[in-house]
Amino acid sequence: MIKSKKVFSIIYLVIITLLSFGIILAYVNQLIPDKSDNDIIKVTNYVGSIDAKIKAKDQPERKISLIRSIKNRVSNRITKEISKLDSNFNEILFKKQLTDLNGGIFKILNKKVIVGANPAQDIYKLKNGMLINIDDGEIVKEELEKYASNMQTFKKYCDNKSIDFLNIIAPCRNSKYENIFYAPVKDYAMEKADLYISQLAEKNVDYIDLRKGIHEAGINQNDLFFRRDHHWTPEGGFLSGNIIIKDINERYGYKMKILNEKDFTFNTYKNHFHGDFGNTGEFYTLPDDFTLITPDFKTDFNISIPFRHISKTGSYRDTLIDMSEIEKGRDYVSYLYVDSPEVIIENNLNQEGKDILFITDSFGRVVAPFMSLNSRKLYYLDIRYYENFNLYNYIDKTNPDLVVFLFNERHMQIPYMLRTEMVLQ
Q1: Any residues with CB less than 8 A from the CB of 116 and at least 6 apart, and which?
Q2: Within its chain, how far is the Cα of 187 from the centroid?
Q3: Residue 131 in domain
């Protein structure tokens, strides 16, 4: 089996190389016109195989028939062979070389859009070199209004229990203050977030718009994001954590300490994190630097992740950071480990602090650890992994001082967000 994989990988590498030269030659001869609707390269998640739609520009069809025929045969052969192999991409030999080769072709052809399996997986290259998915779903005002109404109902419940309640809208890579797309592209994420925020304001639900906070701090939002992943960086989480702490101190009279960079070590792993868009190859966009931020002062935490049977006691680094994920190149999930429905963090050196229920998506994983430095207990819930879960019961059980909902602005209309209606039964 290993020998078969190796033979196939070598054959595939040779074919892809030859095919690449053919496509580049076709491009030089203007067989592939730039920026046309048909000038698209599709990349798959497994091998990054090439599927070029070639349109002749006033050239006879016979000039591209050979390339089209080779492409179809290679594509069919790849599909057939991959189905026989392990579904794990890492099993395929030379996978990095193949992926980088495809990325090099994208670079040479100056591709600004790589089409995925569906529109939500289309990858756009921005003027600053970053890669991004967009939200192409039109605004459904009624759905956003429904979600805001759910938050209003939940706020009333928290008010009755003397619990502070706060909504936080985290930014995405595409800033509302700067358009850095190469071509006119309709991205509805920002408009949805703006509409949602206006509805929260109308319903007197407390919120923080981190997009505005970052902008007013004089920081370019894009500097807080990875190039090849849709998440923000730990530096973005650190900064946002301070914006949140400052706000809740002023809003609720808390006395949480603003974190000072001088009290932390910033350890940067250069060109280390491949991210969501790693299948575009290093020639297309280099891997990102990844920064591990850990406190220099004494810390003592308990962490419990029931779903993964994890229970640890120790320093911030020893409990809240999974170094094995950095070693695997899965850097982002090193903060609070691989996605889990519930993480319970107890700060043993801050027993007079507040208890926080932190309900979030994956953007919260690089914010919650910094918030935990100012809390007694922090209950981290990722409701994407919950069904038939009663949030009221969880609040009654944990009795937090503060409930925080933090979601990325692209998640304003994802179905799991609307499960809140189900949760609040």
Answers
A1: 42, 43, 122, 123
A2: 16
A3: no
C-alpha 248/C-alpha 343 separation (Å) is 22
Q: Mind listing the pLDDT tens digit for each residue in 17-28?
A: 555 554 444 444
Nearest Cα to 412, choosing from 172, 222, 131, 109?
172
Per residue in 83-107, pLDDT tens? Answer: 444 344 444 555 666 666 666 666 6
| Residue 363 near residue 407, CB atoms below 8 Å | yes
Tokens 């209004």 belong to residue: 145
- Residue 170 located in a structural domain: yes
> Phi and psi (nearest 5°) for 70?
-60, -45
Shared domain check, 242 and 288: yes
Residue 3 CB partners (closer than 8 Å, separation 6+): none
In 256-335, DSSP assigns E strands to 264-273, 288-295, 301-305, 310-314
Distance, CA of 277 to CA of 284 (rounded, Å): 10
pTM of the model: 0.76
Q: Residue 44 sits in which domain range?
A: 2-111
Given a cut of 70, is residue 343 above it in pLDDT? yes
135 domain residue, yes or no: no
Residue finishing a domain among 72, 89, 111: 111
Please indicate, yes or no, if residue 118 is contained in any of the structural domains.
no
The verdict on 331 and 370 lying in the same domain is yes
**Tokens encoding 72:** 């179809």
Angle, helices 2-28/95-108, rounded to nearest 10 degrees? 10
For residue 403, what are the CA distances in angstroms to 160, 206, 213, 357, 378?
A: 13, 11, 20, 5, 10
The domain tally of the chain equals 2
Is 307 within 8 Å of 340 (Cβ atoms)? yes
What phi and psi, each to the nearest 5 degrees, are found at residue 80?
A: -65, -45
